[in-house]
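Hi,

I'm pasting everything inline rather than attaching a file, because the server keeps stripping attachments. The sequence lines come first, and each chain or strand is labelled.
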Amino acid sequence: MVDKPINSILVCGHGLAGQMTLTALSHNLPDNIQIIYLNLKDTQSFDQLYGSSLRPTAYNFHLKLGVTEPNLLQAGKTCFSYGTGYKNWGGKSWIQSFHLPFPIWDKTPFHHYLMQRNERLEPYLISALAAKTGVFAHPPRDAKSPLSNAEYGYHICPDDMTNLLAHKGVPSNVAIINGTLKHITHGKGNKITSIALESGQIISADLYIDCSGPEAKLLSAVGSTTQSLQSHSAFMNNIPIDKLGPPMSIVEAYSFGWQSNTPLNGSVNRLTVFNSGSESDAHMSHGYDPDIHLSFSTGRRQRAWAENCVGIGQAATVQTPLTAVPLMLLHRDIDRLLELIPITDDMDIERREYNQRFDDDCENMCLFQDALFASDGLPTGSFWDEIRNKPKNPKLTRKLTQFESRGYLVSYDFEGFNQEDWTILHFGMGRRSKRYDLKIDQVDQVNTLKRLTSLRTACETIVKKMPPHDNYISNYLNYLEKRNGS
Amino acid sequence: MKIEKICIVGGGTAGWMTAAGLAHRLQNSNIKIDLIESNQIGTVGVGEATLPHIRFFNNTLGINEASFMKETKATFKMGIEFCDWGKLGDRYIHPFGDFGMPINGIEFYHYWNKLRLSGDTSHLGEYSYPVVAAQLGKFRRPDTDSSKIESTFGYAYQFDAGLYAKFLRRHAEKIGVLRTEGKVIHINCNNENGFIESVKLENETVISADLFIDCSGFRGLLIEQALKTGYDDWSKWLPCNRAIAVACETRGKSLPYTRATARKSGWQWRIPLQHRTGNGHVYWNEFISDDEAAHQLTNTLEGPALTEPKQLYFKTGKRRVMWNKNVVAIGLSAGFLEPLESTSIYLIQEGITALIELFPDKTFPKSDMVEYNQRMDLHYERVRDFLLLHYVATQRDDSEMWNHFRNLKFPESLQDRIDSWLGRGYIARYEFGAFLPPSWVAVMNGQNLNPKAYDLRVNSSSSLEITQKVKSLSASINHAVQNTPDHQSFIELIGASINGTT
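And the predicted assembly:
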């Protein structure tokens, strides 16, 4: 039997994952492939669980969707981000800033110099200092300037991003249908052959993309079961503010769970994550009657691609937005899908590769999130005990063992978080190694001190000259407005 | 409890690379490095051809490229030409670089796959600057402007490994390595923990150390003979187990690439240096006798032989652990994967780099050893799969060896990789390893494993647009190659010629 070429793709979902997948497919696939977007109605949105923090890598990803930085900044409440400040996290507070790369002196990674002198990393991170001071500026092209190492991402409101993408316009090969899913029909080998809507309309396609959120309406119908980890609840509010805050979000640990406050242009997004038994404590700390109250389970589908159905975003995995992991995974899902759009209805190769990469991405990215919980100083209580009792991934054990033993940074293929991220995390959480690189004792200590002082002073001097984040944003938006108007 | 003394057992390429690398890193540390080398024991001189990573090693040591090339009689290397691997009469170059440049963020080979399936008969190599330049015997260093086609490659060297060892020996001795001439006749281990405490030489000299590096070659004097570490035999996948090597006079221009020609029971290498050409025949003794192998080699030399044929025996595989107790095996004592892709020196370099990054103290924490072994295993396994690809991606049926490979069941990871390529031109990627997607594409395409379909994203550009971009790429490559100097001229230009005065 001859394999049938893929002619049509149905994206079934709503919100950020649905709109982002639709945009990515319509922007990157040829127009002879028919794309149908079934915009599901009456479906609860869990988009707030994608979080509001985008890492610097989002810049290139957005370009694939035809979204530039000005587009993003002009969409709703977007602002810049230098990272996340973790407060009272296992008794430690630090800024998990974006920074690339660290200096390498005498072919020895920078952190070994600090370990020898038992110094903190933060005074040498211009992005952290700027975040703390509440200032922002785009990095200059001159690589000699310490500011060129200050990578930046964005704070976004997922709904703004969804709206931005929804208003981009659709090419002629895209059809959008608003409806409610009623029934899924299966064919040979449990493949989906069509779906029926409440309206009576029947839609069929060669490939089905499930962006329906944690419920995974299609993926669950083809037998991909959930592997749940923890059940949580979350409150969310967008609290109006007059003045834009610093370019960093703050995450704080509490006995009931954790709370993040992410500055946006015009509001602060407050998200409080807790276990159901601690609702009253969480509510008190949250300080507002929640605009959104979610109950959810973190975990992942056993297979992200089953039969002729691919789960994207929360349909494949649900993670808490303690870090940028949920959005990173969403972006990776879409990238992976684009690279592996099946050519025919025999999707064995694509399915196998996709699932392998999904497994690796999920595992590797979650290592970073899990590393945040590898601390003795975190509170007790059901939220934390549940996490503590989870078996530690051997890959994370390897990373922690090597860093604590000798400051060596183990890396896996395409982790998502780079060595600088891990170094900042280890230092922030108070991890120090028993040994440091042998070379450190051979270098001239006076010279090292001079170099360190010079770097620290340069960072401080530049930060003093940088404009406040809110001024920078308003000037930038004014500039964009003028440019667009002229 | 810092290490105070290191003893490297064995000279040769591995020994002196390790000595130079460690001595450079440990300068001013008061760590004493001894290297024991015996003139009675010949060195194998692993690989005369290298991968681009060698440049990083040399740069780290502060080695001047021209002086190094002059002293080792080196030529530049832009890749390897494989002849008769897919089928008799085939030839292709596996370049150190990319094919074309991405179009709309999608790798060029996807576009080429579409053209090929539409009837275009051009070869993928025509869209690779290093391939076209190498074929015409031209060379230049890569351009630093990443928008230029001349930036899309890396380069390595082809050199006399014996001279490289001597060159590094001088360098290492200058920075404190103490060479001791002698043959190890006894190894003294601690009764309680089995760690090696000292080695005794034929002249009764006893050399003790905290850390021993075994660079003694195939025999693994410390790692195997003393510590009985064990060996993972990979003969079932890479069964060639013998080689015979001979140097001959060079005929014609010295080319900036190595050649590997498949034979009925193995394959033959040709490595052009400035003063001679290195040749060797790697074979599986099940299907050819040593005499016949030598005969085949000497009959196909391009010029008169300059040396007596040298016979080598090996078993492909790797040491079960490369770091055991206080012994780290580097080079042939750690493992051997035949030199088809010039990986021997690369694996030595990886061993040295890992050892530097995981340099132990006298307590020898288990975590250092475990990490080293995990890291090195990954490198060896990834190289193994890539080497095996050359043998199994074949349509040859003219000998028992090729029939064996066509029917071989190979590791699932490799099978999946081949299936993904054949099915849709997709290359499964990894970040850490010697061979990235363009290398896999080069070999699979070069050996006639061609996808039956192409990535649909390329259809976002019209056929006309693709044709125009491809034509433009081809023109820019040809233009760039025209302006690239002749390989030999470039060697002279930078003062690296053995005949030059500078």
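The longest strand of chain A covers residues 226-240.

If the labels don't parse on your end, tell me and I'll reformat.
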